Structure formats: C-alpha cells, structure tokens
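From the pipeline queue, job 12 of 40. The input is one protein chain; the requested action is below.

Action: predict structure.
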Amino acid sequence: MEYEYQFENDNFVVTDDMKSKFDRYGGIIIRNFLSKEEVGHIMKSLESEEFRKYMYGVDDGEGRKAHMNIWNQPGDDITGMVARCDKIVNTCEQLIGGEVYHYHSKLMGKPPKEGGRHLWHQDYGYWYENGCLFPNMMTVFMAMDKCEKINGCLQYLPGSHKCGRIEHHRLGGQFEADTDRVNEIQKHCTLQHAEMNAGDAYFMHCNVLHCSSANLSDKRRWALLCCYNRADNNPVKEHHHPFYTPLIKVRNEDILNCKKNIDVDGKSFMPLGVDKTSLLQTVDDN
C-alpha cells in the first residue's frame, strides 16, 4: 500500500512523501509504531481493574455494544505518556500543519463473540457538533490486539476526507453518516480494511469515512485512540471535551519508563451520560 510505512525508532521523520500521501488519502499507516515492549507495558494499564471500571457500552443498533472508555486529559500515567510522546505529537503536528493539543483519548474494545459494530461515520461528524469550526483534527488509531477482518478491524475509504463533512443522524447510541452519500462515495473511494498487528498505527484525518463490523470471532479486538485538535481551532462552545490546553510533550522512552499504571485524577474520565453525541450504557463484562 503506497501510504504504508515502517517505523524506525532512530531514523523516523515525517517525510514529504508521508505528508503528500496523508493529504491525498486522508491517512497513513505506520507499522511497528509501538514496540512489543511498549504494547505490553500499555496493556498493564488498560487491563487494570481500575481502568476497566470506566468502560461503557455504545449501542450499535443491532443489540450489541461497542465498548469504550474516554478520557479528556492525558495525565501522567502510561497512556498519558503515549498521548504526549514526541513520535505521536510531532507526527500529528507535521501532518495536520500546526501545533496540536490533546482533544481526548479512548480505549475501543470489542469483546469476543459480542463486540458491536461501529457505523459509517467521520470523527468530524461528531466533533462538528462540539463547536469545532474547522476539520483540522485527527485520530491516531493504535492496535493493541491483532486487528483483522474476522474480529471487526477498521474499514475506511481513502480519499473520502476530500468530500467534506457528511450529514449524520443518530442510530442506536451512535451517529451514522448519510448512507446514500456513503454508497456513492464508495464508487470513487475504494473500501480498505485496516488489518493491523499490535503496535501498528493509523494516522487518520477527521473527515475520513470509516466503520467496523461486529466482532463475532473468539478473538478480542482492543485499540487505543488518541485524538488531537489543532491549537488554532479552539471550539466555540462549551462541550464535553477540552478547549485548547497546551500539551507538554515527553520523550518516546518515557512510555516504558513510566511506572504509574493509571492517573485517575489527572485524566478526567468521562462519566456516563456526559457525552451528548454518544449514548453510553453500562457494561457488565469488559
């Protein structure tokens, strides 16, 4: 795939080719972006009982739930080091063209056999409703488990960000992009499945149309997503995510050096019922 790259820890830089492909396709995939050691260290935090108690379910309109845990501030724990590290933040700033701040992060969980689907949508379909005037925003999707078709990997339409914002409507606990419009766009933008190994990352523009199927396999599918807004795109209305907050970067090695599994006070986890663009529900089993 022409917008796919390999991460080389000592030599990684955003090249002109990466920026060109990001602008053309709305995203780039970087393989081995997180090392096996980093993924294992991050999972110590994500799998902790204290972290998992903030997980909620989002109805997918078919009786299943896509599990989610959302926090607004990165904090000083392991996942905070991920959201603040140079290799993520600097890459986002070079791809989106300016200083960024942490808009929120989330753990997206699809348990075996019952993990719900995510409907076709743009992230900006949600974030537009939050008073963000420009689509100068992006998501870094990092696979924590092997993501493949069988367990509901991400599906996306490369180049669809050039179509602008699509109208969305509510279905279940999610927003769904206009299906007729999506069907027409698929005639021009070829559907891709983001099959990824743990540690691979997809840097995605907020207007890229994407979805994922339900997980009916016996394999769990977890992903860590860090979302960023450009500093000059401060929201114009009060909502459930942060206004511009300067981001204090850390070194890449601080991910593995961090010994704090979870920083509850520093993360500002979103409680049930706060997010008006998603209808969150309690889940019994994460």
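Job complete. The chain has one domain: 26-280.
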